[in-house]
Amino acid sequence: MNATTTTVIREQAPDRFEIRVDGVVVGFSQFMDVGSQRIMFHTEIDKQFGGQGLATKVVQEALEQTRADGLRVVPVCPFVKKHLRKNPGFEDITDRVTQEAIDLVMKPRS
């Protein structure tokens, strides 16, 4: 049986936390930092890696890093929102999703 190595890395341009299996990017959780908030708006895992808990792992790591960075999370992404409901412990840094936050992430980026 082959052991695999799974790591989560924070990347920039675009801002996201990538999850890698044996060094290959297989998914990510994308965000936008605005002031003291980290708006988490999209999480995606490659289909062939689905069902392995990788989305949970990348989101959990992103939330822990958000806390370590002294920021508050705004869970626009449905998966992040679901993760927060199922895994209490981040209520102290979670802000309500506002229309302004949705508008910011929907705005085309150059």
From TrEMBL:
User: Which EC numbers characterise this protein's activity in its record?
Assistant: 2.3.1.-
Q: Give the N-acetyltransferase domain ranges.
A: 1-110, 9-95
Taxonomically, the superkingdom here is Bacteria
SUPFAM superfamilies from the UniProt entry = Acyl-CoA N-acyltransferases (Nat)
Q: Which PROSITE patterns match?
A: GNAT (PS51186), GNAT_YJDJ (PS51729)
> Residue span of the signal peptide, if any?
none
Which key words tag this protein in UniProt?
A: Acyltransferase, Transferase
How would you classify this enzyme at the top EC level?
transferase
Its recorded name reads GNAT family N-acetyltransferase
Which molecular function term from Gene Ontology is one that the record holds? acyltransferase activity
Q: Which InterPro entries does this UniProt record tie to the protein? A: Acyl_CoA_acyltransferase, Gcn5-rel_NAT, GNAT_dom, GNAT_YJDJ
